[in-house]
Specification:
Blueprint lengths: L10 H15 L8 H16 L5 E7 L14 E2 L6 E10 L1 H5 L6 E8 L11 E7 L13 H11 L8 E5 L5 H10 L2 E5 L3 H6 L11 E7 H14 L2 E6 L4 H9 L10 H4 L5 E7 L10 E3 L2 E10 L4 E9 L1 H6 L15
Parallel strand pairs: 1-3, 6-7, 6-8
Antiparallel strand pairs: 1-2, 3-4, 4-10, 5-8, 5-9, 10-12, 11-12, 12-13
Helix pairs in contact: 1-2
């Protein structure tokens, strides 16, 4: 086991995993089978991440809530050489979007030094507030919604009516939606994929939202925190309990209803990494495309310590990848010829 911290941009390696996930799962786009989307993405991501020089441990493995195919918590990833790191994965954030042919699905991987990531365990949902660098110092999840929106508007030099709040379209967020409506701010509802929704708030230029509000998955919150830290934004969370049983289990861990989890609580330190590849066309990234004998992908990778953000356009040859010994099923190797 290696105990030294990662000192290079590991995201440049992790992005190979997200590329593989969307190339393998993209053939299932619009075919209505969510589990097949998950299966293809999980198998491809696992294969590729196991080639990376790291001693990785999955601490956030998406799929636990709905028994979908997953990279399980506690699973080892990598060659075993290199730094000891925590891994958080969502092979497809927005599997239903992908399965139903809708935009906005992405594949994501985040990494940090061993022990740096918050472990949600049985805490399935968190109430979230996320914004980008301009308003990072002005949000407070304990403050009323109207106060946060006004603070963000002031920080971004715009009127309240011009602030766009993004949130998951879920009944649990109806009260938040009503508060935003009363204030007169704009609302953008997303059917799924609040990692991408949170990142939509974090760009200095080209941001499609100013603030993310509402309850979403806790595994996604940890992954999001890694990206937000890389981009210089801010994020805070509180538990959102489905029932008294959820609340009782959380109390055993010392987590109460009003416990606030800051960005540093979700992921400690600056040595964090994030990679994402577009699965279906969205605001953040283009989706995977199949053109003749090649597959095209659009990705980004980020490192918190340096603040570097890279965009990567990949052109992949399934035929050559197969000849190199890859066991990933990317689908047809050649276009149909008579």
């Amino acid at each position: 086991m290696s105990l030294f911290a990662p000192d290079k941009n590991l995201a440049l390696e992790l992005v190979r995993g997200t590329e593989a996930a969307v190339m393998a799962s993209g053939r299932w786009m619009g075919r209505g089978n969510k589990n097949e989307v998950d299966r293809a993405a999980v198998e491809a991501m696992r294969y590729m991440l196991n080639t990376v020089s790291m001693n990785g441990l999955v601490v956030i493995g998406e799929g636990e809530k709905d028994e979908a195919p997953m990279l399980a918590n506690g699973e080892a990833l990598g060659t075993g050489d290199g730094p000891d790191i925590d891994i958080a994965v969502d092979p497809i954030d927005g599997t239903r979007l992908m399965a139903h042919g809708l935009g906005g699905a992405i594949s994501v991987v985040a990494a940090a030094e061993r022990g740096a990531m918050f472990s949600p365990d049985n805490l399935f949902y968190l109430d979230k507030i996320v914004t980008g660098p301009e308003a990072a110092d002005f949000i407070d999840i304990d403050a009323p919604i109207h106060v946060n929106i006004r603070r963000v508007a002031r920080a971004k030099n715009k009127s309240v009516e011009d602030v766009t709040v993004i949130m998951l379209d879920r009944p649990r967020n109806n009260a938040v939606r009503e508060e935003v409506c009363k204030l007169g701010a704009r609302i953008r509802l997303i059917p799924e994929g609040d990692i991408g929704g949170a990142l939509a708030t974090c760009w200095d230029e080209g941001a499609t939202a100013d603030l993310l509000l509402g309850a979403g998955g806790s595994p996604e919150a940890v992954i999001t925190a890694c990206a937000v830290k890389c981009l210089g934004g801010n994020m805070q969370c509180r538990p959102w309990f489905r029932n008294e049983s959820d609340e009782a289990i959380a109390k055993e861990r010392g987590i109460e209803k009003h416990t606030v989890l800051t960005l540093d609580d979700l992921v400690k330190g600056e040595n964090v990494f994030f990679a994402a590849t577009g699965a279906s066309d969205g605001d953040l990234l283009k989706g995977v495309a199949y053109r003749g004998e090649h597959i095209y992908t659009w990705s980004l990778c980020m490192r918190g310590k340096s603040g570097t953000v890279r965009y990567i356009e990949g052109i992949h040859s399934p035929k050559k990848l197969s000849e190199l010994g890859s066991s990933i099923d990317y689908g047809p190797k050649h276009p149909f010829r008579k």
